[in-house]
Design a protein that fits this description.
With about 475 residues, this protein is mostly helical. It has helices at about 1-25, 30-35, 50-65, 95-105, 110-135, 145-165, 170-185, 190-200, 210-235, 260-285, 290, 310-320, 335-360, 375-395, 400-405, 410-450; strands at about 40, 75-80, 90, 255, 325, 330, 460, 470. Strand 7 and strand 8 form a beta hairpin. It is globular and about 75 Å long.
Length: about 475
């Protein structure tokens, strides 16, 4: 027993000697100790960003596996795989590789579904994280730059989802890609050039899949990795925001230290996120490309429903009016306004909101405490109206599916959604604004009533003997 203790002491001494040698040459001990003591706020909503990060890690891992078996080639081949329904049919080499991955590669279908569900969670977690930041005012000084980076990451994630959704070259994804090409072509002057650059020529081109593959596997992931790195670096070096109460002040952070509290909580959340994604992927089927069949340019998948994160864009295009004005001799195609102008305006408004709010409220101070929803009625009402707009547009993007379910003509549902897309956000804004304003007034009254009463005024008058007496007290 004594020998074992002595050996452990020797090993500990050797490790301390190695650590000392390393620290004398790097000087990292102080930095590491400071990092270990960094405090993170203890609230569940701050974990939404971590869920997005963990889903992105899973996407990178599963995407690497899928890349080993996917063939980004539009050349025609004859299918001879085990799926008897399509045996002998001609299809692109890309679609055939996805069929092989789904039916012949061990765990291939499971990894495909993990990748797809992780993509849905990735974009959903980013959107929820952005909503929390917007509603609570976490974008205010000094975090405007990180807020803009977050919006850029959301935009890149949407592009990553659209390009990945199109790679299998099945009938459903091909139909969606044709819509994307039509929207690009509607851009005045530069539209045909952009379409040719991305598609490799007139749609459908034999170079489409190879170019989408490069964008999906190399370009956008590289931008996302760089953006996430900068986003996390700014988050680390800037002071954390936190909710009010429980001792939280503008000059402190109340919560868990990075090690061991936050570290083990994050590790637990990572494994929980991965477990849930794998469980859902193993039990719930998604994107069964063998049911849609290979893409044929003169056919369309009906009723068709895209992934949820582009449903609102689909809804905008479906609700667009068949109007093509001619301005200065240039005809503006009908998909341009709903497909390009309105999404661009919405994202621009979201990006400039911190600066507009600071200018209108004349509030340019640093803020580290988050606002409750009732404290900023205009911001809360605007965010709620934006959420309702997103929901209405998403439902409109599935008007053909709803028409089948409700046994209602598509034209009728389209007319209803064109009214709702204007009325519903306006009504929501007015109702939420009124509720938030009334709640704020109630809180202000409570705070005012809770203050100690002011002391009564003291009125002093001079007495005949040269002194003073208090008129209110009668002396």
């Amino acid at each position: 027993m004594a020998e074992r203790v002595e050996q452990q002491a020797e090993r500990q001494t050797e490790l301390e000697r190695i650590a000392g040698w390393f620290d004398r040459r790097t000087g990292l001990s102080g930095t590491v100790r400071s990092a270990m003591r960094k405090v993170f706020p203890d609230h569940w909503s701050f974990l939404l960003g971590e869920v997005a990060l963990f889903a992105f890690v899973i996407l990178l891992a599963t995407g690497t596996f899928l890349t080993l078996f996917y063939t980004p080639d539009a050349r025609t081949v004859t299918y001879e795989g085990p799926y008897t329904t399509l045996q002998g049919d001609t299809m692109s080499a890309a679609y055939a590789s996805v069929m092989r991955l789904s039916f012949q590669v061990q765990a291939g279908l499971l990894v495909r579904q993990i990748h797809h569900w992780a993509a849905l969670l990735f974009i959903g977690a980013i959107a929820a994280h952005l909503a929390r930041i917007f509603f609570t005012g976490a974008f205010r000084r000094p975090r405007e730059l990180n807020y803009l980076i977050g919006i850029g990451l959301l935009t890149m994630a949407l592009g990553e989802g659209i390009t990945g959704y199109s790679l299998p070259d099945d009938l459903l994804s091909g139909t969606g890609l044709r819509i994307v090409d039509s929207v690009m072509l509607s851009i005045p002057f530069v539209g045909p050039w952009l379409s040719s650059l991305l598609m490799g020529g007139p749609f459908p081109s034999e170079y489409i899949l190879s170019r989408l593959f490069v964008v999906h596997v190399m370009l956008l992931p590289g931008v996302l990795v760089g953006g996430v790195t900068v986003h996390l670096a700014l988050l680390w070096f800037q002071k954390h925001t936190q909710f009010r109460g429980h001792g939280a002040r503008e000059d402190n952070v109340v919560g868990l230290s990075f090690f061991p509290g936050q570290t083990f909580r994050s590790l637990g959340l990572f494994f929980l996120t991965a477990a849930v994604i794998v469980l859902v992927a193993g039990l719930i089927q998604i994107n069964p490309v063998w049911l849609y069949g290979p893409y044929v340019p003169y056919e369309a998948a009906v009723p068709a429903q895209p992934d949820w994160y582009v449903g609102w864009l689909e809804g905008l295009v479906r609700l667009g009016l068949p109007i093509e004005p001619t301005i200065l001799g240039v005809t503006i195609p009908s998909p341009f306004v709903p497909g390009i102008v309105i999404p661009g305006a919405l994202f621009t408004a979201l990006a400039v909101w911190p600066f507009v709010e600071a200018r209108l409220t004349h509030d340019h101070a640093e803020h580290h405490l988050l606002d409750p929803l009732w404290k900023t009625p205009i911001r809360t009402a605007t965010g709620a109206a934006g959420v309702v707009l997103f929901l209405v547009l998403t439902l409109a993007g599935g008007n053909d599916v709803l028409a089948v379910m409700l046994n209602t003509p598509v034209e009728t549902l389209t007319a209803i959604f064109r009214v709702l897309v204007v009325v519903a956000p306006v009504v929501t804004w007015l109702l939420v604004y009124r509720m938030a304003r009334d709640t704020r007034a109630a809180h202000e009254r409570q705070e005012h009533e809770g203050e100690p009463p002011e002391p009564p005024a003291v009125v002093l008058v001079r007495t005949p003997d040269g002194g003073f007496r208090d008129m209110e007290a009668g002396r």
